[in-house]
Every structure is written in structure tokens, then in C-alpha cells.
Amino acid sequence: MRDRSLKALSKCVDRVVDTEDPSHVLDPVMLEHARRLVASYDDERPDTEILSAVGLFHWLRFTARGGEDPEEAAIAFWAFARCMIYDDEPPPRKLIPHVLPEAVNLATGLLQRAAESDDLHLTEQAVDAWQRIETATPADHPDQAVMWANLRVALLLRFGQTEDPADLEEAIPVWEQALEALPADHPDRADLLSQLGCALLTRFERAETPQDLEKAIAAWRQAVQITPAGRPDRAVHLFNLSTGLRIRADLTGTPADREEAATVEEQAARARRENDLQ
Question: Fewer CB within 10 Å of terminal CB in the chain, N or C?
Fold first, then answer.
């Protein structure tokens, strides 16, 4: 049944495109084929052929009916949102603003399930989904930083499961892009800087590239500078900075790094004690 309905619907869409006659998609028989395909679809086993055919069919019906049937548009957006997640071929560009919110919701759920299950297949799907969303999202989209942040999380999740350095290599520039897109006073900026420092330290420990250690220390130092005293996360940022300084001191033997590391460690300990009293 799936193949028969898919073939009929694909031919119908092709006829509309070839003849520029939208009446073909208004055929009740074709609508029934589309309904069967939607009913057979399962997100656990994504079928991009069904999604593409159904999305195009209902979008053509929406336009053929004068753009006044929200149900037709809703079904088209439902299908195209899943195309954005599961298919390498993105939806028509003019529809991306309409399908992006649903695609983000789907990808967020996928990422949450992957993080909770340690299932590499789910993680692969989450990485692919956020890579496709990031590619399709306009550069000036107000939530671009959120897309980068979620792609970073997905890549690091896969890195933790496979230890493939390629994921770390891709995640770090995405992190840096997300930071560039965030306003200077954004409440998440310090946490992102601190996490970036940890990723850079991991790459340093693998490749022993001094620039990564320097960048990690700089990121942690900035995280400390923008985190007010009394904030619970300040102790973490201070501890990370002291760790970076200790490592650099061990490598270079610089007394100034050892002295600063000791001072920052004392500050971190004091901040932790203050946290315990709150």
C-alpha cells in the first residue's frame, strides 16, 4: 500500500509541476493516498520519501486553494519539519521560517532522548538533525546561537561515546560562533566560556597544542571576570582557571602562573564555602 500510494502521489505532484495545472492535487483520490501515507508514517522509522511527497502535495493543495486552508498548510509544515530533521534535501527555502520551530522541537526531543539513553544511533540522528538545522537556518535568525549551542551539545555527546576527535574539532568552532552571536551581557555567556575552556583543554590533552591551553585559560579568565561575586557558578569558573594555570606552570615552570594558580584556588575555595552557607 505504501509504494502504491507513494507512486500515485509522486506522479500527481510531477504533473502539477510539469503542466502548471494545480487541479491535479485537488483530486479526492489523491487526497486519500496522502492520508494513507500520513497514517502509515512513524517517527521511529523516518521515511523521507513519504515526508517529501506529502509535504509537496499538501503545499500545492494549500496554494491551489488560494492559501486559505490552514489545515493543508499545517500538514505540509508537519512533513517538511521532519524533512529538515531526517532528509539531506532541505525544504523549499521560503518555507523554512514556517517549519523551523517544529523542526527545532523535534531535534530537541531527539537530543534529550539520546542524552538519556547513551544510544549511539539516536546520537547520530541528533547530530545529523542539528547539522541540517544549522545549515538551513538563515545567518540573521535571532535563535542562531541556540542552534549552534544544540549542535555543540550533540557533537560533544557523540564525542563522549566514540572519542572521535573530528566531533571535538567541529564542536569548538561552533562554540566560538555561538559566543560571537551572544550579547556581551547574556546570562549564559560565562557558562559557555567555561565549557569552551574545558573542550579546549580536552583537545590540548590529546594533541598537546599550546594554543589550545592558552585559549582555555583565556576563556576561563573571561568567565570569572563576568561572573559577579556571590554567584554559585563563580567557584567552578575559578577552579577551572586555577587548573589551567597549574598545567601551564608545570609545562613552563613560570613562577607567576604558580602564584596566580594558588591565589585563584584560594578564591575558589572561599567561593565554595560561601555557596555552602547560602
Answer: C
